[in-house]
Protein backbone atom coordinates (compact mmCIF):
# COMPACT_ATOMS: atom_id res chain seq x y z
CA UNK A 1 0.00 0.00 0.00
CA UNK A 2 0.99 3.64 -0.38
CA UNK A 3 2.24 5.51 2.69
CA UNK A 4 -1.28 6.96 3.03
CA UNK A 5 -2.87 3.52 3.09
CA UNK A 6 -4.18 3.01 -0.46
CA UNK A 7 -3.70 -0.25 -2.34
CA UNK A 8 -4.44 1.32 -5.75
CA UNK A 9 -5.18 4.79 -7.05
CA UNK A 10 -8.72 6.15 -7.47
CA UNK A 11 -9.03 4.57 -10.91
CA UNK A 12 -8.86 1.20 -9.07
CA UNK A 13 -6.56 -0.23 -11.71
CA UNK A 14 -3.77 -2.69 -10.98
CA UNK A 15 -1.28 -1.44 -8.39
CA UNK A 16 2.20 -1.81 -9.77
CA UNK A 17 4.04 0.61 -7.46
CA UNK A 18 5.83 -1.97 -5.32
CA UNK A 19 9.56 -2.48 -5.89
CA UNK A 20 11.17 -5.70 -7.18
CA UNK A 21 11.90 -6.46 -3.47
CA UNK A 22 8.19 -6.24 -2.71
CA UNK A 23 7.31 -8.51 -5.63
CA UNK A 24 9.92 -11.05 -4.49
CA UNK A 25 8.52 -10.88 -0.94
CA UNK A 26 5.01 -11.53 -2.25
CA UNK A 27 6.20 -14.42 -4.42
CA UNK A 28 7.93 -15.90 -1.37
CA UNK A 29 4.66 -15.77 0.60
CA UNK A 30 2.72 -17.26 -2.32
CA UNK A 31 5.30 -20.06 -2.52
CA UNK A 32 4.61 -20.97 1.13
CA UNK A 33 0.89 -21.38 0.51
CA UNK A 34 -1.19 -24.38 -0.48
CA UNK A 35 -3.80 -22.06 -1.94
CA UNK A 36 -4.13 -18.38 -2.79
CA UNK A 37 -7.46 -16.56 -2.46
CA UNK A 38 -8.06 -13.60 -4.72
CA UNK A 39 -11.14 -11.45 -5.03
CA UNK A 40 -12.91 -11.10 -8.35
CA UNK A 41 -12.22 -7.33 -8.29
CA UNK A 42 -8.49 -7.95 -8.04
CA UNK A 43 -8.59 -10.44 -10.91
CA UNK A 44 -10.58 -7.98 -13.03
CA UNK A 45 -8.02 -5.22 -12.27
CA UNK A 46 -4.86 -7.27 -12.90
CA UNK A 47 -6.05 -9.88 -15.40
CA UNK A 48 -3.43 -12.25 -14.02
CA UNK A 49 -2.27 -13.68 -10.71
CA UNK A 50 1.19 -13.99 -9.20
CA UNK A 51 2.60 -17.45 -9.80
CA UNK A 52 5.76 -18.99 -8.40
CA UNK A 53 8.49 -18.57 -11.02
CA UNK A 54 11.80 -18.36 -9.11
CA UNK A 55 13.72 -21.65 -9.51
CA UNK A 56 14.76 -21.79 -5.80
CA UNK A 57 11.15 -21.39 -4.67
CA UNK A 58 9.97 -24.06 -7.12
CA UNK A 59 12.73 -26.37 -5.80
CA UNK A 60 11.75 -25.60 -2.21
CA UNK A 61 8.13 -26.57 -2.94
CA UNK A 62 9.29 -29.78 -4.61
CA UNK A 63 11.45 -30.68 -1.57
CA UNK A 64 8.42 -30.09 0.66
CA UNK A 65 6.40 -32.52 -1.46
CA UNK A 66 4.13 -29.73 -2.71
CA UNK A 67 2.91 -29.26 -6.29
CA UNK A 68 4.84 -26.55 -8.20
CA UNK A 69 2.07 -23.97 -7.83
CA UNK A 70 -0.44 -23.26 -5.07
CA UNK A 71 -4.06 -23.42 -6.21
CA UNK A 72 -5.36 -20.01 -7.29
CA UNK A 73 -8.86 -19.65 -5.87
CA UNK A 74 -11.01 -16.87 -7.31
CA UNK A 75 -13.67 -15.68 -4.84
CA UNK A 76 -16.78 -14.26 -6.47
CA UNK A 77 -20.46 -14.08 -5.65
CA UNK A 78 -21.53 -13.29 -9.22
CA UNK A 79 -18.79 -15.33 -10.93
CA UNK A 80 -18.98 -12.75 -13.72
CA UNK A 81 -15.44 -13.05 -15.06
CA UNK A 82 -14.16 -12.59 -18.58
CA UNK A 83 -12.96 -16.01 -19.80
CA UNK A 84 -10.53 -14.21 -22.14
CA UNK A 85 -8.45 -12.85 -19.20
CA UNK A 86 -4.78 -13.90 -19.44
CA UNK A 87 -5.28 -15.52 -16.01
CA UNK A 88 -7.06 -18.37 -17.76
CA UNK A 89 -3.95 -19.06 -19.83
CA UNK A 90 -1.47 -18.96 -16.91
CA UNK A 91 0.04 -22.34 -16.04
CA UNK A 92 -1.55 -22.51 -12.57
CA UNK A 93 -4.32 -24.63 -11.06
CA UNK A 94 -7.52 -22.52 -10.94
CA UNK A 95 -10.52 -23.04 -8.69
CA UNK A 96 -13.63 -20.90 -8.33
CA UNK A 97 -15.20 -20.28 -4.92
CA UNK A 98 -18.71 -18.96 -5.27
CA UNK A 99 -22.36 -19.39 -4.26
CA UNK A 100 -24.89 -21.57 -6.09
CA UNK A 101 -26.02 -18.81 -8.47
CA UNK A 102 -22.44 -18.03 -9.51
CA UNK A 103 -21.58 -21.66 -10.13
CA UNK A 104 -24.35 -22.04 -12.70
CA UNK A 105 -22.47 -20.24 -15.46
CA UNK A 106 -19.19 -22.20 -15.20
CA UNK A 107 -18.49 -25.84 -15.88
CA UNK A 108 -15.50 -27.51 -14.31
CA UNK A 109 -12.76 -28.17 -16.86
CA UNK A 110 -11.06 -25.73 -19.18
CA UNK A 111 -11.34 -22.56 -17.09
CA UNK A 112 -11.65 -23.90 -13.56
CA UNK A 113 -10.48 -27.32 -12.44
CA UNK A 114 -12.81 -27.17 -9.50
CA UNK A 115 -15.83 -25.11 -8.54
CA UNK A 116 -16.59 -24.84 -4.84
CA UNK A 117 -20.01 -23.67 -3.74
CA UNK A 118 -20.30 -22.25 -0.22
CA UNK A 119 -23.61 -20.51 0.24
CA UNK A 120 -26.94 -21.12 -1.35
CA UNK A 121 -28.53 -17.68 -1.27
CA UNK A 122 -27.61 -14.56 -3.20
CA UNK A 123 -25.68 -13.17 -0.25
CA UNK A 124 -22.02 -13.66 0.57
CA UNK A 125 -19.80 -16.72 0.54
CA UNK A 126 -20.11 -18.77 3.74
CA UNK A 127 -16.44 -18.62 4.74
CA UNK A 128 -16.52 -21.28 7.43
CA UNK A 129 -18.08 -23.75 4.97
CA UNK A 130 -15.61 -22.64 2.29
CA UNK A 131 -12.55 -23.12 4.50
CA UNK A 132 -13.82 -26.52 5.62
CA UNK A 133 -14.06 -27.57 1.96
CA UNK A 134 -10.58 -26.26 1.20
CA UNK A 135 -9.16 -28.11 4.20
CA UNK A 136 -10.84 -31.31 3.05
CA UNK A 137 -8.95 -30.91 -0.25
CA UNK A 138 -5.68 -30.64 1.72
CA UNK A 139 -5.30 -26.86 1.49
CA UNK A 140 -4.24 -25.91 5.01
CA UNK A 141 -2.11 -22.82 4.53
CA UNK A 142 -3.94 -20.11 2.59
CA UNK A 143 -2.63 -16.74 1.45
CA UNK A 144 -5.06 -13.94 0.61
CA UNK A 145 -3.83 -11.71 -2.21
CA UNK A 146 -6.59 -9.10 -1.79
CA UNK A 147 -8.34 -6.86 -2.51
CA UNK A 148 -9.82 -4.86 0.32
CA UNK A 149 -13.35 -6.21 -0.03
CA UNK A 150 -12.28 -9.83 0.23
CA UNK A 151 -9.85 -9.14 3.08
CA UNK A 152 -12.55 -7.21 4.98
CA UNK A 153 -15.02 -10.07 4.76
CA UNK A 154 -12.44 -12.57 6.03
CA UNK A 155 -11.37 -10.21 8.82
CA UNK A 156 -14.98 -9.58 9.87
CA UNK A 157 -15.49 -13.35 10.00
CA UNK A 158 -12.47 -13.58 12.33
CA UNK A 159 -10.58 -15.77 9.87
CA UNK A 160 -7.33 -13.90 9.31
CA UNK A 161 -4.32 -15.05 11.34
CA UNK A 162 -1.58 -12.83 9.98
CA UNK A 163 -1.20 -9.68 7.94
CA UNK A 164 1.73 -8.67 5.73
CA UNK A 165 1.80 -5.03 4.71
CA UNK A 166 4.41 -3.28 2.59
CA UNK A 167 4.44 0.49 2.91
CA UNK A 168 5.57 1.91 -0.41
CA UNK A 169 7.06 5.38 -0.77
CA UNK A 170 4.26 7.26 -2.52
CA UNK A 171 1.07 9.10 -1.61
CA UNK A 172 -2.11 8.40 -3.58
CA UNK A 173 -4.97 10.08 -1.70
CA UNK A 174 -8.56 9.95 -2.82
CA UNK A 175 -11.56 8.85 -0.80
CA UNK A 176 -12.52 6.21 -3.39
CA UNK A 177 -9.11 4.57 -3.63
CA UNK A 178 -9.17 1.04 -2.20
CA UNK A 179 -7.47 0.26 1.11
CA UNK A 180 -6.19 -3.03 2.58
CA UNK A 181 -9.45 -3.49 4.52
CA UNK A 182 -12.54 -2.02 2.86
CA UNK A 183 -16.05 -3.33 3.54
CA UNK A 184 -18.27 -1.41 5.93
CA UNK A 185 -15.57 -0.84 8.56
CA UNK A 186 -15.27 -1.76 12.22
CA UNK A 187 -15.68 0.45 15.27
CA UNK A 188 -12.57 1.13 17.32
CA UNK A 189 -14.07 -0.91 20.15
CA UNK A 190 -14.47 -3.96 17.88
CA UNK A 191 -11.28 -3.55 15.85
CA UNK A 192 -8.96 -6.54 16.10
CA UNK A 193 -5.61 -5.61 17.60
CA UNK A 194 -2.34 -6.46 15.88
CA UNK A 195 0.88 -7.81 17.30
CA UNK A 196 3.99 -6.82 15.38
CA UNK A 197 5.96 -9.97 14.54
CA UNK A 198 8.57 -8.43 12.28
CA UNK A 199 9.53 -5.17 10.62
CA UNK A 200 12.16 -4.64 7.96
CA UNK A 201 13.12 -1.63 5.86
CA UNK A 202 14.70 -2.06 2.43
CA UNK A 203 15.55 1.14 0.60
CA UNK A 204 12.41 3.30 0.91
CA UNK A 205 9.94 0.48 1.64
CA UNK A 206 8.87 -0.93 5.01
CA UNK A 207 7.82 -4.57 5.32
CA UNK A 208 5.47 -5.25 8.23
CA UNK A 209 4.32 -8.62 9.51
CA UNK A 210 1.54 -8.73 12.10
CA UNK A 211 -0.38 -11.38 13.98
CA UNK A 212 -4.09 -10.55 13.93
CA UNK A 213 -5.80 -10.80 17.31
CA UNK A 214 -9.21 -12.41 17.65
CA UNK A 215 -12.20 -10.22 18.44
N1 LIG B 1 -1.72 -3.15 -3.83
C1 LIG B 1 -2.06 -4.41 -3.69
O1 LIG B 1 -1.30 -5.21 -3.15
C2 LIG B 1 -3.39 -4.88 -4.18
C3 LIG B 1 -3.75 -6.22 -4.03
C4 LIG B 1 -4.99 -6.63 -4.47
C5 LIG B 1 -5.86 -5.72 -5.05
N2 LIG B 1 -5.48 -4.45 -5.18
C6 LIG B 1 -6.41 -3.45 -5.74
O2 LIG B 1 -7.66 -3.58 -5.12
C7 LIG B 1 -8.69 -3.26 -6.04
C8 LIG B 1 -9.71 -4.39 -6.06
O3 LIG B 1 -10.22 -4.53 -4.77
P1 LIG B 1 -11.78 -4.72 -4.52
O4 LIG B 1 -12.00 -4.56 -3.05
O5 LIG B 1 -12.51 -3.85 -5.47
O6 LIG B 1 -11.99 -6.21 -4.99
P2 LIG B 1 -11.68 -7.65 -4.38
O7 LIG B 1 -11.71 -7.69 -2.90
O8 LIG B 1 -10.50 -8.19 -5.10
O9 LIG B 1 -12.93 -8.39 -4.98
C9 LIG B 1 -14.22 -8.02 -4.60
C10 LIG B 1 -15.13 -9.05 -5.19
O10 LIG B 1 -14.81 -10.34 -4.68
C11 LIG B 1 -15.97 -11.06 -4.41
N3 LIG B 1 -16.13 -11.15 -2.96
C12 LIG B 1 -15.43 -10.49 -2.00
N4 LIG B 1 -15.89 -10.83 -0.80
C13 LIG B 1 -16.89 -11.71 -1.02
C14 LIG B 1 -17.79 -12.41 -0.18
N5 LIG B 1 -17.73 -12.27 1.17
N6 LIG B 1 -18.70 -13.23 -0.74
C15 LIG B 1 -18.77 -13.35 -2.08
N7 LIG B 1 -17.96 -12.71 -2.94
C16 LIG B 1 -17.05 -11.90 -2.39
C17 LIG B 1 -17.10 -10.24 -5.05
O11 LIG B 1 -17.11 -10.65 -6.40
P3 LIG B 1 -18.34 -10.44 -7.42
O12 LIG B 1 -18.49 -8.97 -7.58
O13 LIG B 1 -17.90 -11.12 -8.67
O14 LIG B 1 -19.51 -11.09 -6.80
C18 LIG B 1 -16.58 -8.83 -4.86
O15 LIG B 1 -17.16 -7.87 -5.72
C19 LIG B 1 -8.03 -3.02 -7.38
O16 LIG B 1 -7.88 -1.65 -7.58
C20 LIG B 1 -6.66 -3.67 -7.22
O17 LIG B 1 -5.69 -3.04 -8.01
C21 LIG B 1 -4.27 -4.00 -4.76
Q: Quick summary of this structure?
A:
With 215 residues, this protein is an alpha/beta fold.
Question: If you had to describe this structure to a student in words, what would you say it looks like?
Answer:
This protein has 215 residues and is an alpha/beta fold. It has a domain at 20-155: Dihydrofolate Reductase, subunit A (3-Layer(aba) Sandwich), CATH 3.40.430. It contains 6 helices and 8 strands; from the N terminus they run αβααββαβαβαβββ. The protein has helices at 20-31, 40-46, 55-63, 100-103, 127-136, 148-156; strands at residues 35-39, 71-75, 94-98, 114-117, 142-146, 162-167, 194-202, 205-212. The strands form 2 sheets. Strands 4-3-2-1-5 form a 5-stranded parallel beta sheet. The chain has a 3-stranded antiparallel beta sheet with strand order 6-8-7, with no helix packed on it. A hairpin with a 2-residue loop joins β7 and β8. The chain is globular and about 45 Å long. NADP nicotinamide-adenine-dinucleotide phosphate binds next to α2, β5 and α6.
Amino acid sequence: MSADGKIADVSRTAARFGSPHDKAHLEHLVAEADGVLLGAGTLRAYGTTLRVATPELLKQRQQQGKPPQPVQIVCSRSAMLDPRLPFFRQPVPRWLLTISEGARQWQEGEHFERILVAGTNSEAIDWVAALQQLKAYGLNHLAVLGGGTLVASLLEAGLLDELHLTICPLLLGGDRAPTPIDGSGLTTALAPRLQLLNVRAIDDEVFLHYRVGKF
